[in-house]
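This follows on from our talk about sequence and fold. Please put the record directly below this note.
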Amino acid sequence: MNELDKLKHLLHHWAEHNDEHAETYRDWAARASALGNRDLAAVLERLFQESTKLKRLFEEAGKKIG
């Protein structure tokens, strides 16, 4: 496996984990909100949103590799 193939594999792997973590942040945001901690919920929701932006960057990087 050459370096670009390895990087393509890693990007896919990182993107999958990013998606998994993003969903966890959103779940915990809902839990924190239900517990009355709206400030924490807002930060966790922001983590979800930023992770969504990262997903687009992973996709862009993958397209650049081919």
Observations:
- The chain has one domain: 15-65.
- The chain has a mean pLDDT of 95.
